[in-house]
């Protein structure tokens, strides 16, 4: 059985409009991370804890992507979000 990975957006990360774009603002870092539409969707979904499988299901419903592509893109996004301290893994 594979490990269930659950994530949530860090409480100090705010999603804000910046001009025509949307960015994640991290107060501690005094940093803005400009988000593409899919990244925004993921971060907004992670207001509440969600498993990686729940995120895959949400993205498949919201996009017309192939499951293998969605999984690969989500893996990359989660790694980037973790690296930039936008989300935290809670299990």
Cα separation of the termini: 15 Å
Low-confidence stretches: none
Tally of domains: 1
- Oligomer kind: single chain
Number of helices: 3
Kindly state the mean pLDDT as a whole number? 95
**Which architecture does the CATH hierarchy give at level 2?**
Alpha-Beta Complex
What would your notes on this structure say?
The chain is 41% helix and 29% strand. It is of the alpha+beta class and 91 residues long. The protein is globular and about 35 Å long. The strands form 2 sheets. The protein has a 3-stranded antiparallel β-sheet. It has a single domain (6-89), classed as Outer Surface Protein A, domain 3. The protein has 3 helices and 6 strands. Helix 2 packs across helix 3. The mean pLDDT is 95.
Q: In summary, what is this structure?
A:
With 91 residues, the chain is an alpha+beta fold.
Keywords:
three-stranded antiparallel sheet; 91 residues; 41% helix; 6 strands; 3 helices
List the helices and strands and how they pair.
Elements: E1 6-9, E2 13-18, E3 21-26, E4 31-35, H1 37-45, E5 50-51, H2 52-62, H3 67-83, E6 87-89
Antiparallel strand pairs: 1-5, 1-6, 2-3, 3-4
Helix pairs in contact: 2-3
């Amino acid at each position: 059985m594979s490990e269930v990975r659950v994530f949530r957006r860090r409480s100090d990360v705010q999603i804000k409009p910046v001009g025509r774009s949307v960015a994640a603002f991290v107060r501690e870092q005094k940093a803005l991370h400009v988000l593409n539409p899919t990244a925004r969707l993921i971060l907004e979904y992670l207001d509440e804890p969600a498993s990686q499988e729940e995120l895959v299901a949400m993205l498949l419903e919201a996009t017309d992507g192939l499951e293998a592509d969605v999984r690969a893109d989500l893996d990359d996004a989660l790694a980037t979000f973790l690296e930039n301290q936008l989300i935290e893994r809670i299990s």
